[in-house]
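Supplementary Note 3. Input sequence used for the single-chain structure prediction.
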Amino acid sequence: MKRNKMNILKEIIAHKREEVERRKELYPVKLLEKSIHFDAPAVSLKKYLLREDKCGIIAEIKRRSPSKGVINPHISIERTSIGYMQAGASALSVLTDEKYFGGSNDDLKLARKFNFCPILRKDFIVDEYQLIEAKSIGADAILLIAAALDPDQIKQLSRQAHKLGLEVLMEVHNQEELLNNIHDSVDIIGVNNRDLKTFTTDLETSVSLSDKIPAAYVKISESGIHDPEDIIYLKKSGFQGFLMGEHFMKQSRPEKACADFISRLKEKMNV
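The predicted structure, written as discrete structure tokens, is reproduced below.
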């Protein structure tokens, strides 16, 4: 029987909990707190998404995924991350999950080394330890997935993230997840347009939830964005950020694909 994304998500979360327990032993909190990044101020993802000289795109580095398989396994983190930012992206998103997405903490560390910009740690956060880990590797923001956490967990993890100086992007797929998880310690709300059961994407998922997201939150749309017209359409519905990964990563030179995309977007917006 074919697994749907909900089943895969449960599998990933179960594995992540085991992985975190192993990492706690290998890299104790006291060791993580000695990182050169630990006391450094974060670069605000919220502020960069709202900057008028930026396009709102969070450009992602992702080698593979459970749904798409191998995408771009031999990517140069240095070249791609620098190229994304030179292209005009507002921020970077770096997958750090190894088993399912082919990423690593070293990928984010490398992106941090070469870029002064907001970096989102894209992973499956289930434990406060991962927040400390995120801070230690140079992340500015973390992702909390409403489909993988209950409201109390999101509240607790988001508050702890704020104590560490990290911003919080909460990802939702539907109205129930959104309304159950609106907290003052969440900074950005992202609507994932991918259906967890069918894998299909539909921008109308974002559009239908837009007016239900309070104005205090920066709104971003995730998945299924393939054309500059998609961003123009989402902007009209009030979205300020756009997470794009696969569209760029499936090209041999993701940074060039990003530059071409942003150039076409600016032309269409007459900027």
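Strands lie at 57-61, 64-65, 69-70, 91-95, 119-122, 141-145, 167-172, 188-192, 218-222, 241-244. The chain has a mean pLDDT of 95.
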